[in-house]
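WARN no homologs supplied; continuing
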Amino acid sequence: MTGPTNGDPQISVIVLAHNRVQYLRGAVESVVRQDLDRSKFEVVVVKNYEDAALESYFREVGATSIICTEQPGALKVAAGVARSRGRILLVLDDDDLFEPSRLRTIAAYFDSRGDLGFYGNRASFIGPKGEFLDLRSVPRFGSGPSRSKGTLFLASSKTAESLRQLAFRHPDFNVSSSAVRRELVERSLPYLKRLIATVDTLFFFSALVSEYSVLLDDALLTRYRIHEDNTSLAGSGLAEARSKKMLEFAQLAERDYRVIREFVASSGNAQVLRLMDARLLLVQLIEACRDPASRRRDFAAPLRGLLRYRDTYPVRESLPTILAGILCLVAPSIGRAAYRKQIRVD
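OK structure emitted
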């Protein structure tokens, strides 16, 4: 099996791996086994290690393999973008998988909608060995993007009313569930190179501030793997170390969100900037819930700020976090303990 040979492919899939070896081949297999004509897509693997067996497999299936020793995942995405040629860009984390019809579905939508800038689909959830999970056993995602809400199309005008419809859809969750027009990635590339991890949020907001439309598909076309090394989950080990990991992730997200806010502000789109400001306040509230040294004022400031954004979709879909923050404000020790139990630190 070989990759595209004549002209540029329609789709480029950038597969990312850092240190982990055990999932990468399966991720690439899920791409090359797509039911879309192989000439219409390319695969670019970006990893920070050498592996002779994997390199042999990549040559066999016509995948381009490059080494990027930079640790931030966003820099690996940027390296993959530089080596890719497709007009539609997809990113696949090494521990996630694509359903066989994902690329064909995406190609058809972009072909039929000339102004489509961003596509997102729902994800099913699998365990370390690929087994499907009952999300009731995973509180972090129990009310998240696996819930069916129907397909949503946002026209290029993106009115305030249409943006409110994004609530409870978690549209910037999981970069492996999105596809974005190359032009939008290139516009935001200087900001992408400054990020650490939240590429999914940048891609989505680059579409919101653009003249292109957004489509959120109800189809389950990605498999999101939950395991002990997930960046945004507490994982295993001692409670103190797990709590520290969760706090560090929230701090990382705040740093990234400030960069993305710069990008959004540069567009002059005030209503989308409100959404990003809500995102920032929410992650500050999450930091306060996770930090054992936080005081009442650390909860009060973001909660007060969020009152101005209560009509936005980030606030509407984050009510459990806001309630936890209010409880922490009233009784910090009780509220923090309840929050830690929710995210499975205790």
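The chain has two domains: 11-225, 239-342.
OK
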